[in-house]
Sequence to fold (124 residues):
Amino acid sequence: VQLQASGGGLAQAGGSLRLSCAASGFTFSNYGMGWFRQAPGKERKFVVSISRSGDISYAPDSEKDRFTISRDNAKNAVYLRMNSLKPEDTAVYYCARSKANVRRATLPFDFGYWGQGTLVTVSS
Fold:
């Protein structure tokens, strides 16, 4: 299993970024996918996840309006669109693959594989 996140970088507050995660080594459409982030000195935090087919997404209320997850099962890829960025969104963002048979993956324990992360820095 390999998960390769990309698309991070420097953005200004109020701007947008789109992260991508390329998956390989497994049948992509059989697993839910998610994004987490970890700010310096803080614990890894759930951002959003998406079901195997892409028809259902899960996100904390605090993220729903700004962060959108999508997936393309034909391309084995999952995306995170981040709008109205804030300096507090600065973090390393990780994509993750859910464990088998987990229908509603929202906790770190629900995920079995993690990508290497991509750094997002939001300047004020």
In short: The longest helix spans residues 61-64. Helices lie at 61-64. The chain has a mean pLDDT of 95.
